[in-house]
Design a protein that fits this description.
By secondary structure, the protein is an alpha+beta fold. Helices cover about 40% and strands about 25% of the residues. The protein is globular and about 50 Å long. The protein starts with a helix and ends with a helix.
């Protein structure tokens, strides 16, 4: 099964990443995070997306899914093309975009509340 998705339909595989990244940006789900990175996982079957010092993974997925509903800011990127995967926790959450699994990972998350507090502080 290695490289199966990427080799069988590379356009769909890369479109899933593009739509995910566009939706994360448009939904502002990762505001306050830094060191955003992504790479193919499981030999081309999944995408892995991670960040540091931002929201918990489940918070990012909640914000993203809210932005997809009711023609929100991420509606055009993912409407009808995304569903939440199983078992989110503080560090990992899972989406399926265009039938391609996407894992979101929060390294050293601080949580949405802390992100908002930091963003509201005047810069020195």
């Amino acid at each position: 099964m290695t490289e199966q998705v990427r080799q069988a339909d590379p356009a769909r595989y890369y479109e899933a990443l593009g739509r995910t990244m566009a939706a994360l940006r448009e939904s502002q789900a990762l505001n306050g995070a830094h060191s955003l990175d992504w790479w193919p996982g499981l030999g081309g079957i999944t995408w892995e997306v991670e960040w540091q010092a931002g929201p918990f993974a489940y918070e990012a997925v909640d914000a993203l899914l809210r932005a997809v509903d009711d023609e929100g800011p991420a509606w055009h990127a993912l409407h009808g093309l995304v569903r939440e995967g199983a078992d989110p926790d503080r560090h990992y959450a899972h989406l399926v975009v265009l039938d391609v699994p996407v894992t979101l990972r929060a390294l050293t998350p601080v949580g949405g509340r802390e992100v908002l507090r930091r963003m509201a502080q005047p810069s020195r």
